[in-house]
Design goal:
By secondary structure, the chain is mainly alpha-helical. It contains one helix and no strands.
Length: 43
Amino acid sequence: MTPISVIFLVISAVVVWGGLLGSVGFLMAKPEVDAYPEGDIDE
């Protein structure tokens, strides 16, 4: 692999895993929705 491909591999892995860890951290901090938006009731 060329050095540029390794750099892009590392950058993409950091973006993907960083997003996953950020999402998990957010859900652990605030797992429940405080209020749902008003909407129509299906009948």
